[in-house]
Design brief:
The chain is built from 15 helices and 5 strands. The chain is of the alpha/beta class and 326 residues long. α4 packs parallel to α5, α12 crosses α13 and α14 packs antiparallel against α15.
């Protein structure tokens, strides 16, 4: 394994824990989705479990422990994540973890537990998990990962060392994307991914730009009364809701910028600048802000049992009505 190029500062902090013999019993890694938090946690876990780490702290990849890690059979490395077909980490999973941690590590190195995403622990699981932090097991490091750390109980957060993974500079991210064979639209993908390189790479591999452009065309057709919002909502029914919400939100933010600034620099969607400027000339700011508020509320409901089809119908109908007032 190698470090992602924007994680060197984070790695230096983790490396210092080991050099100074101050390895934390609990570590919370935070940052936006797509910044490689799991990759960084794995790197640190491998380093702690490796028998012969390199001078920079990276695991050697060749010792017996590293071979077990690569084969996913190391007895002192555990990962807790939601079971398939479930959206949360359950109390049964945490009870099983607590039982395992009552035993000593099988090898002479550390034992590492990674919980990702930690904010997916339900209330019962989070309460049970506190036991792991309040009564730390021998030579055990627990790494929590979250891009929504506000969803974690304060009692858990307060017992963890913190490590925040920041967005990289555009030049670093685009250079890395080029190394991953992303030939076109690297800066645009970086912008759409809100500065998260792994998310930008996924967008490139999935052809998300084409899908986003198709959705924007439908969005404009609603504004120009060439298409009905209910029909568009039906066509969007099977598309990824989180991407749709982000795209629409970015269009609204850009429209607000266009209303305030004629040149409209720094848009999320610079390739759509001409269409956005044209739309902004016929819209009232108060209506755009109301629609923006609705989008923020809708984004908070994505992980609930809300009917997504009806949610998008409401958003698109509000957009349709907003354009009738021109």
């Amino acid at each position: 394994m190698t470090l992602l190029p924007w994680q060197q500062k984070n790695w230096d902090q983790l490396r210092n824990y080991s050099v100074q013999n101050r390895v934390p019993q609990a570590l919370l890694i935070t940052g936006n989705k797509g910044l490689g938090k799991q990759h960084l946690a794995d790197q640190y876990a491998y380093s702690l479990l490796c028998a012969k780490p390199q001078t920079n702290g990276i695991a050697c990849g060749h010792c017996h422990n590293c071979l077990l890690l690569n084969a996913e059979t190391h007895p002192d490395f555990m990962q807790i994540r939601p079971d398939e077909a479930k959206t949360s980490i359950t109390i049964d999973q945490i009870r099983s973890l607590v039982a395992k941690l009552t035993l000593k590590p099988q090898f002479d190195m550390y034992r590492v537990v990674i919980v990702n995403p930690a904010d997916k622990m339900n209330n019962a699981a989070a309460n049970a998990f506190l036991k792991c932090l309040e009564e730390p097991a021998e030579r055990t490091v627990i790494i929590l990962i979250s891009d929504k750390s506000a969803g974690l109980p304060a009692t858990i957060v307060s017992r963890c060392q913190k490590l925040a993974v920041a967005r990289p500079a555009k030049e670093i991210a685009c250079s890395w994307l080029k190394q991953q064979a992303v030939q076109n639209d690297r800066e645009l993908l970086f912008s759409l991914a809100q500065g998260s390189p792994l998310l930008a790479l996924r967008y490139a591999n999935e052809g998300s730009l084409t899908l986003r452009n198709d959705c924007f065309k439908a969005w404009v057709d609603i504004a120009k009364q060439r298409s009905h919002p209910v029909i568009v909502a039906e066509n969007w029914h099977k598309l990824p809701e989180s991407s749709l919400i982000f795209w629409i939100t970015s269009w609204i933010i850009d429209l607000i910028k266009c209303c305030y600034l004629p040149k409209s620099d720094g848009l999320y969607n610079p390739d759509l600048k001409e269409s956005l400027q044209e739309l902004s000339q016929q819209l009232e700011l108060k209506g755009l802000y109301r629609l923006y508020d609705l989008l923020l509320k809708s984004r908070q409901l994505l992980d609930t049992q809300i009917n997504k089809h009806i949610m998008f119908e409401e958003i698109l109908i509000k957009w349709f009505e907003l354009n009738l007032r021109k």
